[in-house]
């Protein structure tokens, strides 16, 4: 009898155990959503209306949840973050990176975009020659030159040994004969002109033929290697990693996640209020590089700074999300709507429209 009662009690409680916790309903009041100009994620059109990847995403999610809201602009990243942390706004949709320090003061939804920090530099100028100088001063280049020099000296020594008894140019004191052999070897290797005082003995002439053919291949390989290294260095630019930033003048946006990254990496920098100010400083030569969120840099340079370029490297890693005040009851509903949206065709089309094919992948 007791066993039967236990089974009946278990069956009665099963629906309650299987029922998932209800998602809190979003507030019915009008929400205040903060934003700032950060193209292509948040920007204004010619009529002053807000648009952009983050803005369109918020509108799409808010429509799905039936949220009423109005957008309020803040001038800087720090002002927008302060508005979220103090509860002046109910959410912030722009290009906000999730960091540990920010997470202590506010909440974030599921990330909707993964990116990293980019480095903007001038297309020309003095800094453009630094990668070239770096190549010529590198150990690899020095090793290649010394290898060629060593082979030329070895061939020159053999020519002297073969010809010292058969050719007056290589006779006399050993030093004189060695220099003559080394000079002939270098001239034959570089094809700088007709090599004078060629070998007369059979071993010397055989070695000369082999060396002339081999030197053509050797020089071609050497030149190809240097060209490839110079091309790679030029593509990478003056900055290849974080360590290179410590040797040049760097700029960053005050209050951005870039500042936290540069500080942790012990990189000195000059702070600017807006990305455009830092890019103008690069253009004017007051700083050598400007570090900021890569998609924002690429967009701004494409629109307004054709004299600059974003190097093909990515520093750090970043996740953009919608910022919320702590203990916000809307987050769960927003997360569910975001996860459903990010897997759909609408999001793929929207990314393609704002970022193109490179940014949409």
TrEMBL record:
<feature type="transmembrane region" description="Helical">
    <location>
        <begin position="206"/>
        <end position="230"/>
    </location>
</feature>
<feature type="transmembrane region" description="Helical">
    <location>
        <begin position="139"/>
        <end position="162"/>
    </location>
</feature>
<dbReference type="Pfam" id="PF00060">
    <property type="entry name" value="Lig_chan"/>
</dbReference>
<dbReference type="InterPro" id="IPR015683">
    <property type="entry name" value="Ionotropic_Glu_rcpt"/>
</dbReference>
<keyword id="KW-0325">Glycoprotein</keyword>
<keyword id="KW-0813">Transport</keyword>
<protein>
    <submittedName>
        <fullName>Transporter substrate-binding domain-containing protein</fullName>
    </submittedName>
</protein>
<keyword id="KW-0472">Membrane</keyword>
<keyword id="KW-1133">Transmembrane helix</keyword>
<keyword id="KW-0406">Ion transport</keyword>
<feature type="signal peptide">
    <location>
        <begin position="1"/>
        <end position="18"/>
    </location>
</feature>
<feature type="domain" description="Solute-binding protein family 3/N-terminal">
    <location>
        <begin position="30"/>
        <end position="358"/>
    </location>
</feature>
<feature type="domain" description="Ionotropic glutamate receptor C-terminal">
    <location>
        <begin position="30"/>
        <end position="349"/>
    </location>
</feature>
<dbReference type="InterPro" id="IPR001638">
    <property type="entry name" value="Solute-binding_3/MltF_N"/>
</dbReference>
<keyword id="KW-0812">Transmembrane</keyword>
<dbReference type="InterPro" id="IPR001320">
    <property type="entry name" value="Iontro_rcpt_C"/>
</dbReference>
<feature type="transmembrane region" description="Helical">
    <location>
        <begin position="174"/>
        <end position="194"/>
    </location>
</feature>
<keyword id="KW-0732">Signal</keyword>
<keyword id="KW-0675">Receptor</keyword>
<keyword id="KW-0407">Ion channel</keyword>
<dbReference type="Pfam" id="PF00497">
    <property type="entry name" value="SBP_bac_3"/>
</dbReference>
